[in-house]
Every structure is written in structure tokens, then in C-alpha cells.
Design a protein that fits this description.
The chain is mainly α. It has 2 domains: about 70 residues, Helicase, Ruva Protein, domain 3 (Orthogonal Bundle), CATH 1.10.8.60; about 200 residues, Methane Monooxygenase Hydroxylase, Chain G, domain 1. The chain contains 11 helices and 3 strands. Strands 2-1-3 form a 3-stranded antiparallel β-sheet. The longest helix is centred in the C-terminal third of the chain and has 28 residues.
Length: about 325
């Protein structure tokens, strides 16, 4: 019996895959929730756990995590427990470990000026507030202005379930949330910073894939213009050959730009409608440096309760989802 593994089955010689050779193909994808719980049980079998640890909860809160990610979470949780002198690993250690693995290592030694800290707070709250107000967005897990990894602040989203297909509404919501930081900077400071570079890159990539791969543009139509690259060692950009004319390329570029601009306008409309709420949430974020999704829900509910009692303000409400009466993916 000969067994082999590859992550580029598309470039193998077809002769290798004929009957009698490598004729049985097994796809090993990222684990689902049951798989993640099983992997966690394997990695924690020799680790003493506190009574409050529920591996099923950890599995549900880590959609998309690979086996290596889960192993890292367990190891980091054990280190956090050891640092605080505990003989058992508690649920709080797993929460800290998840943040470290998915959001990056804290860099508290990096001291930001008050101006930069305030700019970062509005940028991250732009992401987080849109994530709270848009009905199709993944739940906001945590927003922080403590530098992590290369980022000055991070907004983390945790999907409630594994996603195997993505709808157009969901993708548009992802782009809107990505553009929220840049839009918040414009509303408050009337200028942009370089902090939105990664957001723009990811938003543009999503918009381009909507147009060229997933047939989600009415102007381009249900056509796939994204032919796969066959240059394994040169990489996608060098080996990619456009299977379409220059005129079509210009149309694709124009459509990508249109999608991003329209969704940016929708992000700006929603944040301007909720500007008072954004200012209040930023005040709390600057004070505490980190807010989780539950705290954001409580602060938004308190703000809405106060505005209902006021004769001068209407309660803050989110825009309807795309396709209803009017129209509405993990930042560093």
C-alpha cells in the first residue's frame, strides 16, 4: 500500500491518478465542530482541567481553526495557568489563549501617543459597531486598542457556526465591516491613515472574487474570469495569464471599484446615523482598552434606553439587511 499527501492535487500528472495507482482520494479539510472537540480532547488528556472548562464551548467558538491552531490554544492555555501559579487550566486561560492565537501577541511595550490611541480607537470601533449593527455580520468577539502583532488595534469576529457557502449579502457585509475603520477616521478626523491598508487589501480581494469568480456582478454576468495558475514555484501573480481582453479587464476593474465605493458609502451612512453611539463606545474603549461582545451589547442597550427617554433623540437602530426596505469578514 502506497500513501501520499499533497496540497496541490491540481498540478499532479494525471497518470499518477489512474486506476491502479493513486486511485483513492481522501480530502482532509479543516475540522468541523465535532472534529474540533475531538482534537481538543486528545490534546488535553494529560492536562488537568478546572471544573469550569467545557471543551464543547471552546470547539463551538473556534470555527475555521485547524488542528495545529487547537494544539496551540491548549499549549498557550497551559502556559497562562502556569504563570498564575495554578495547578489546573481554567476557562479564562483558554479565552486568553484563543485571543493570543487568533489576534496576535500583546505588545504593551509599544507606547502610542494620545492622538494615535484615539485614532486607533475610532478605527477599531468603526469595525466593531458595524459588526453589531449589520444583521448578516459575524458576532463581534472582542475589540481592543492594545497593540497585537503588527496591528495597533484588533477587532475580532467569531462566527457562530461553520460556513461552507457564502452569500452575496454576507460578502457585502464583510466588506462593509472591513471599510468601517477607514470610514470612522473620515467622519471624526476628516482624513485617512495608513492603518486601513490591510482592510482595503482584503475588501478589494473580496470584491474582485465576487466579480471574477463567483458571478455576483450583474454587469459582468455569471462568468468565471479567474483561471487557475499553473506556475507552482513562481506563484499566482507571476504565473497568472488573463483569459480575457483588455476591454474586459477594464470593465472588471471598474466593477470592483464600484462595489467597494458603494459599500463604503453604505458604511458611512450607517456610522453617521449612529455617530453619537460611536463616540460613547469609543470613550469606554479608551478607558478599558478592551471590550468584548457582551460589553458592547450592554453599552448599546444602555445608550438606546437613554435615547428613548429623551425628547430630542430617536433610539439607535441598525439598517435593514440588503434586500429589505433599504440596503446594509478579521481586522488587524
Amino acid at each position: 500500500i502506497v500513501i501520499a499527501a499533497t496540497n496541490r492535487a491540481d498540478i499532479l500528472d494525471p497518470a499518477l491518478l489512474r486506476p491502479g495507482r493513486f486511485d483513492r482520494h481522501i480530502v482532509v479539510d479543516r475540522p468541523d465542530v465535532r472534529g474540533r472537540e475531538g482534537i481538543l480532547k486528545v490534546h488535553t488528556r494529560n492536562i488537568p482541567l478546572a471544573p469550569d472548562v467545557d471543551l464543547s464551548i471552546i470547539a463551538r467558538s473556534t470555527p475555521g481553526a485547524s488542528g495545529a491552531d487547537l494544539a496551540n490554544i491548549v499549549n498557550e492555555a497551559a502556559l497562562f495557568a502556569a504563570r498564575r501559579g495554578s495547578d489546573v487550566v481554567a476557562m479564562e486561560d483558554f479565552e486568553k489563549a484563543k485571543d493570543k492565537v487568533f489576534m496576535g501577541i500583546e505588545r504593551r511595550s509599544l507606547v502610542l501617543s494620545e492622538r494615535e490611541k484615539r485614532t486607533t480607537a475610532y478605527h477599531e470601533m468603526g469595525h466593531a459597531l458595524l459588526g453589531k449593527l449589520l444583521p448578516n455580520a459575524d458576532p463581534v468577539h472582542k475589540v481592543t486598542i492594545i497593540p497585537r502583532g503588527p496591528a495597533l488595534g484588533v477587532t475580532s469576529y467569531l462566527p457562530t457556526e461553520d460556513r461552507y457557502t457564502l452569500s452575496k449579502d454576507y460578502l457585502e457585509t464583510q466588506i462593509i465591516c472591513l471599510l468601517g475603520g477607514r470610514v470612522a477616521e473620515k467622519i471624526v478626523f476628516n482624513q485617512y491613515t495608513t492603518g486601513a491598508a490591510n482592510d482595503l487589501e482584503r475588501a478589494t480581494l473580496l470584491a474582485r472574487r465576487m466579480v471574477t469568480e463567483w458571478g455576483m456582478s450583474d454587469r459582468i454576468g455569471p462568468v468565471n474570469y479567474n483561471s487557475p495558475s499553473h506556475e507552482v514555484f513562481l506563484g499566482r501573480d507571476f504565473g497568472h495569464v488573463r483569459p480575457y481582453s483588455e476591454q474586459t479587464a477594464q470593465l472588471i476593474d471598474a466593477e470592483v471599484t464600484r462595489i467597494v465605493r458603494e459599500l463604503e458609502h453604505r458604511a458611512e451612512d450607517l456610522l453617521r446615523q449612529n455617530e453619537a453611539l460611536m463616540h460613547e463606545l469609543v470613550t469606554h474603549l479608551l478607558e478599558k482598552e478592551t471590550l468584548d461582545g457582551t460589553e458592547l451589547d450592554r453599552l448599546i442597550a444602555e445608550f438606546n434606553a437613554r435615547t428613548r427617554k429623551s425628547d430630542h433623540h430617536e433610539p439607535i437602530t441598525p439598517l435593514p439587511a440588503h434586500g429589505e426596505a433599504s440596503d446594509p469578514v478579521v481586522a488587524p
